[in-house]
Amino acid sequence: MLLDPVQVLVGPGQAVEKQSAVLIKNRRLEAFGDEARRIGRLEALEPQDAGQQLLAPCLVDCHSDLPEPFHGRGETLLSLVRSAGSSGFGQLALLPETVHGPREQPDHLQGFAPSDCDVNVLLWGGFSSGSAGVELTAHADLLDAGAVGLSDGRSMPPIALLDRALTLGDMGSAPVLIPPLDLALRGEGLLRESVCALRAGWPSDPASSETLPLSQLGQLQQCHPDRRLVLMALSTAGAVELLQQMPMPPQATVNWWHVVADSSQSSASASTWFVDPSLGSATDRQALIRALAENLIQAIAVQATPLDDEECLLPPDQRPRGVSGHHLVLPSLWQTLVVTEGWSPEQLWQMISFGPSRLLGLREECLAVGSNRWLLFDPDQSWTPARPDPMGPRAANLPLLGQTLQGRVMDCGLRIPATRPC
């Protein structure tokens, strides 16, 4: 097909070309601009007007959960790469926690490359044995076996163990992904401490449960400037303020749901209020957006936490926290950051593609002749997410169901599993 005109974002550091043209053959990019038009004329192709649409590199998710990758009743590896790939995600990095224990041995990293699929599945290796924060795993062996970095998932190891690991330095320059979280301070808190949380009557989570451990992690980064600490999923204005004050702030990510939602926007019974880390106020959300714009936070992660239908029936204080839905991420972020906040598409892609790639130590996604790593996004397309979507995720904890969304990935060049697994 010949898209003419169409907006094109080739890669990092480049501006969107507003009135370009693209020739796509067998899902691969054949030519751009005048060369695409010339070949289109020779082959008598009818140009398709896609002037409002954006052809851009694939997206990158730097951390998400998949507890049961092969035999789950809900989301599995095949269903995840199908739904994420059809939503434009070319790379997914999975946290080490599974129902069978964390990935802490080199052989635990095998078998995660789906056949006939172009979505790259990357794996975080376990930081400590059993994620217990007592003994270190064989960091060098895990990285040699292909782990993209080290993490204990949603658990924060003790500072003393972190310090010892960074001093040993077996991880070299690989990222060490740590959530700044003091479980004792969080207690039973479900919502970040705020007026909204008090009105709703749910147990509140003080900002100090994030800011106190973050201060310690910032000190560790200063003591080990050659190591790469990454703060996982910041969620408070206080955390942003601390980052601004640090002479050598660690890299950081934010969960997409904390960018588009806050505790003032939902009803007190909404399951999408209860995520990890705790959902904050509108002030927290605006601080996180400013931190992204100032590059204090380098990547937006999906941090999907897929739950099955039975898990979603549990009371909020008994079920795992989190939301899922890779197909909701780009439309929601486009509306929040581009339409409402006035960001450029280039800024958005920096946070959902190029920045996550660099954080993972990977080469950035880009458009190239002969490549099928592209997505076509229409910001004007209206649609309504629904559970029966054949290309949607199998997770039951999806936000925004039944709501009309603006913006959708219309096509993607990646090969993905074509049918919904049974």
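(the above was protein one; protein two follows)
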Amino acid sequence: MENLPASQRVVVTGLGAIHGLGHDVDSFWASLLAGKPGIDRVTLFDPTNFASQVGAEVRNWNAEDHMDPKEARRNDRYTHFGFCAAKQAFKDSGLDMSQEDPDRVGVVIGSGIGGMYTYEAQLKKLFDGGPRKVSPFTIPALIGNICSGMFAIEIGARGPNFGLVSACATGTHAIGESMHMIKRGDADVMIAGGTEATITPFAYASFCSMRAMSTRNDDPATSSRPFSLGRDGFVMGEGSGILVLESLEHAQKRGARIYAEVTGYAATADAHHITMPDPEGKGLGMAMTRALRASGITPDQVDYINAHGTSTPYNDKFETLAIKRVFGERAKSVAISSTKSMTGHLLGAAGGIESVISVKTIQTGNIAPTINLHEPDPECDLDYVPNVARQAKVKVVMSNNLGFGGQNAAVVFKAI
């Protein structure tokens, strides 16, 4: 990678995160390293009649404290999170739009589901009061591209701009595709990641009917237990993770602080089943292999994998197989963790916030643990950094995400 021209190398210069474990990157990261569970009983609605009653909510949050109150009232909770995390990342990057060509700055912030709060609230108004009661802001608030559009308006960015949807692979796809836009010369700067807010009655009812969510309601803090023998489903999370990406040349020219390099990315499909991953891990394995190949990095050089690790019976076993497929004997010595044990599963925002985690791992030399891993599944027999954070020299990190529809994504970050 070092032999590529600086204009073809892509680096991370800004980070933003909003989650129940912290409304900014520093507090969020400190909570992860402390092994703090961000999961509790749901309070955003009464979950009494639902099979799953736990979630990782963003608590003590008022969007009007972080953005224009009028715009906050007009927009959905998922947009609030993404917009405000993007503001954090942009500020962190030190970019000054008065010094930038606005046609060379783009935004791709994806969401797996979009404005679920708006959808439910406006349907209730329709059923209770008729069509005249439905807000004229309904469509802009619920569609999945509006966060990208709003942040572009906020900073005056006229470059590539859209929303991206690929279920739980959305955030990683948004970052990877943004990397490619910079590499091919479409932009100098991209603000990219994912955002989601689906802790709502309809979303819970839908996922519960699939029996996809944990029903460990008596002990919420331990309900997400990736790679554990007793795992029984994922736990819903909400929030956002956003990166600022730039060409190395652009970042160096303005004297930016550089966190890490994005060296490779790949997207594949299982073409197997609409919700169940390929039981041999072939699709995810191919995504990891291609991401490494694009990076010019061998499996022996990877120090840490931030796993998708959803705490579902199928995913954790099949992801373990995929890692073994790609890494061979090296799989047993590479550090792996699922931070979803603390964050819950942020669906379309998972790849965004887990990319923030990946970059912080490189920056700090600390690996966040997989908590609640006291009785490992014998079929999940790798080093999942159980229960306690670990200090290590980390130069190369891979982050994996899978989505309903059989979609896979892998992205590689490297110290620079």
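Reviewer note on protein two: DSSP finds 13 helices and 15 strands in the chain.
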